[in-house]
Write a structure and sequence with these properties.
The structure is a single chain. With 140 residues, this protein is mostly beta strands. It has three helices and eight strands, in the order E-E-E-H-H-E-E-E-E-E-H. The protein has helices at residues 46-49, 53-56, 128-138; strands at residues 4-14, 22-30, 41-43, 58-65, 75-82, 97-105, 110-111, 114-115. Strand 7 and strand 8 form a beta hairpin. The model has no long low-confidence stretch (mean pLDDT 92).
């Protein structure tokens, strides 16, 4: 069973239901056996994807953002989607199955504990940067 860290981070959730994308806080969970294991811990999507295939069958995409007029937008954005197509509804927003999520780190900073997360800014929601990251995630 993965270890949940008490490391809350503000992420962007893009619900499959078609309701508006919104920011929420999730703890992180340790990961060592998936495409995102280099981060050592990721936001805990299990309340939305379940703890089995929905969570285990996931993909990640990366978008580096620099030189923004609002410095809080600079950083590396990580987008996740599940590819458990038979287990989750198709999203009206993204065309993915289940909710999509976006988290942020500094341009690249980690320590012995893994990724150092920053909160996703409200200014990111609905932005061209958000759309670009979702497009990268779509191409996986």
């Amino acid at each position: 069973k993965p270890i949940v860290r008490e490391t809350p981070v503000q992420v962007l959730r893009i619900p499959a239901s078609g309701s508006p994308p919104h920011l929420l806080r999730l703890n992180t969970i340790e990961t060592d056996d998936n495409v995102d294991c280099f981060l050592l811990h990721i936001p805990d999507f299990r309340p939305y994807w379940g703890s089995r295939e929905g969570f285990r069958w996931r993909d990640i995409a990366r978008l580096e953002v620099t030189d923004q007029p609002s410095p809080e937008l600079n950083g590396v954005y990580w987008g996740w989607k599940s590819f458990a197509m038979d287990l989750m509804p198709k999203s009206e927003h993204t065309g993915f199955y289940g909710d999509a999520f976006i988290a942020k780190t500094p341009i690249w900073e980690n320590d012995e504990n893994g990724a150092v997360y920053e909160d996703v800014s409200g200014a990111f929601v609905g932005s061209a940067m958000m759309r670009a990251l979702l497009e990268r995630l779509r191409d996986i």
